[in-house]
């Protein structure tokens, strides 16, 4: 199964970015509140294992069967927290959008 997945590029430091584990906790608490149930029930209902690229990940996955179409599948997780050395850096240096002169010169 070939799935496009984002690469976690932000630093995992206090206050710098929200790590994926914290985001998963926020997701399950939101779903538990919406369905008026507990977080444990959400994990029991939606927890599954997904194999990609020869590795197995624990994910939360919801599947909605549809008539005449493939089922709608929403997956949360499977974002590895690892350093990818070969990821191209797409940062560009900022161009100076102003000059040193003012238009009010005589």
Side-by-side strand order of the widest sheet: 1-2-3
Q: What are the low-pLDDT stretches, counting only 5+ consecutive residues below 50? A: none
Number of strands: 3
Q: Name the helix and strand elements from N-terminus to C-terminus, one letter apiece.
A: HHEEE
Strand content: 15-25%
Helix content: 10-25%
The rounded distance between the terminal residues' Cα atoms is: 68 Å
Which geometry do the CA atoms define?
A: elongated
Counting helices, strands and paired strands, the structural category is alpha+beta
Tell me about the biggest sheet? 3 strands, antiparallel
Summarize model confidence as the mean pLDDT.
78
Helix segment count?
2
* Cα-atom radius of gyration: 22 Å
Describe the secondary-structure layout.
Blueprint: H1 20-34, H2 39-46, E1 47-52, E2 55-64, E3 72-77
Helix pairs in contact: 1-2
How does this model look, in words?
This protein is α+β, with helices and mostly antiparallel strands and 106 residues long. The protein has a domain at 20-77. The protein has two helices and three strands, in the order H-H-E-E-E. It has helices at residues 20-34, 39-46, and strands spanning 47-52, 55-64, 72-77. It has a three-stranded antiparallel sheet with strand order 1-2-3. Helix 1 crosses helix 2 (39-46). The longest helix has 15 residues, at 20-34. The protein is elongated and about 70 Å long. The model has no long low-confidence stretch (mean pLDDT 78).
